[in-house]
Amino acid sequence: MKYRDNFVDRRQDALAAKAALLEKFKQRPDESDPEYQARMAERRAIAEARAEREKEKEARRQAKLAEEARLKAEREAQREAERLAREEEERRAAELRAQEEEARRAEELAEDVARKARRDARYAARKARVRKIG
Questions:
Q1: How far apart, in Å, are the Cα atoms of 79 and each of 65, 73, 75?
Q2: CB of 19 within 8 A of CB of 25?
Q3: pTM
Q4: How many C-beta atoms surround the C-beta of residue 37 within 10 A?
Q5: How far lies 13's CA from each of 3, 6, 7, 39, in Å?
Q6: Rounded to an integer, what distance in angstroms lies between the CA atom of residue 57 and that of residue 109?
Q7: Could you say which DSSP state residue 29 is in?
Q8: Contacts for 1 with CB less than 8 Å, ≥ 6 apart
Q9: Where is this region: Disordered (predicted)?
Q10: pLDDT for 26-77, tens place per residue?
């Protein structure tokens, strides 16, 4: 299209463009036209297929989320079981240490009693010797 300086020419071009659009609209087929109905049926089929694909996609997404949730729950359950096992092992180890400590204290106490008994025996023997002599 060549450049126009004249306002009237530009206005006539705009009116011609509007008239062409109106003519194109008037030539549009009626809704009872078989070609129009076929085109609309095709569009509906495409829209239905798209909707079906969206449903399938959403179902796959939901299935994936459910699987991820199941796996997460399994991992959490496994971690919890491991934690409980660790706590039980730590509790057993603490009990064992407490028993060993108690046994060690009992041995020390027994040694102290035996040492005191030996000392008392020596003391008594010394006293007995002193009395025999004196």
A1: 21, 10, 6
A2: no
A3: 0.47
A4: 13
A5: 12, 11, 10, 33
A6: 77
A7: P
A8: 13
A9: 69-118
A10: 777 777 888 888 999 999 999 999 999 999 999 999 999 999 999 999 999 9
